[in-house]
Design a protein that fits this description.
CATH superfamily: Creatinase/methionine aminopeptidase superfamily
Oligomer: single chain
Number of helices: 4
Order of helices and strands: HHEEEEEHHEEEEEEEEE
CATH architecture: Alpha-Beta Complex
Helix content: 25-40%
Strand content: 15-25%
Largest sheet: 5 strands, antiparallel
Number of domains: 1
Distance between the termini: 31 Å
């Protein structure tokens, strides 16, 4: 299913996106050496509830997971890159943490992810990973607009990741989003320009480049959810929800310092 949102629905999508961006940046500011992943999950639950929103993850039970997910945010550390199930782990200096959050409010969902390094250590390999995903995300957003095709976005993302020296996994990528978290069209992190669905104003997409240092292969934890690099190398993941407009693409999940979840 591919949804095209009305102007009224798009206004609600902007509100949900702002909430997601606010929660992620609040969590980042509160995360220090010693922070427990389960605390991050509890803080997320409290902020979602306070905003009158609903988690897209608690009851999430896709075919590839051992569902339901049962938590409010994905917390992926170091070699974990996707669907990191919160667990009793205290973050250490130099850990690379990815927070991935999807929330629904007033019947419109929004999805975003950030990767950052905890503490004072800044391992160069981790910094390079994060920056590559951020550049690729920016390139994908830049390629989006009315009349462009999904392949244009995929090609823009993949070109940046490949130029940075990373292999690209095509099992998981970006996706349409609207009244539900995951919809068509699928947005692979590499592809051929000029191919695929033609973008229209009112379409929402969640773009999410992610990479691993030296592999494109994933393994699944015993928890049935957390996806890790097959070699144990570090990983990073960046994501925004965007809206296709008459003029281009608007990023809905940016953090606004003046935002108030009312």
């Amino acid at each position: 299913m591919i949804e095209i949102l009305s102007p009224t629905e798009l206004a609600r999508a902007r509100e949900t996106g702002a909430l997601v961006g606010h929660i992620l940046q609040t969590l980042k500011s509160r995360t220090t050496v010693g922070t427990n992943l389960l605390d991050l999950d509890r803080w997320t639950q409290a902020m979602i509830t306070e905003a009158g929103a609903v988690s897209c993850y608690v009851d999430y039970e896709p075919s590839f997971g051992r569902g339901p997910f049962g938590h409010y945010i994905c917390t992926s550390v170091n070699d974990a890159v996707l669907h990191g199930l919160p667990r009793d782990y205290q973050l250490a200096d130099g850990d690379l943490l990815t927070l991935d959050l999807a929330v629904s409010r007033r019947d419109v969902a929004s999805d975003a992810a950030i990767s950052f390094i905890v503490g004072d250590s800044q391992p160069s390999e981790s910094v390079a990973l994060i920056r590559a995903t951020e550049r690729a995300l920016a390139a994908g957003i830049g390629a989006a607009g009315p009349g462009a095709r999904i392949g244009d976005i995929s090609h823009a993302i993949g070109s940046v990741l490949t130029a940075a020296g990373y292999a690209i996994n095509t099992e998981f990528g970006g996706h349409g989003i609207g009244s539900t978290m995951h919809q068509d069209p699928h947005v692979a992190n590499t592809g051929r320009p000029g191919r695929g669905y033609t973008l229209r104003p009112g379409l929402l997409l969640a773009l999410e480049p992610w990479v691993m240092v030296d592999t494109a292969s994933l393994v699944t934890d015993a928890d049935g959810w957390t996806l890790r690099s097959a070699t144990g190398c570090r990983t990073a993941h960046s994501e925004h929800t965007i809206a296709i407009t008459d003029d281009g693409a608007d990023v809905l999940t940016l953090s606004d310092p003046a935002y108030s979840p009312t």
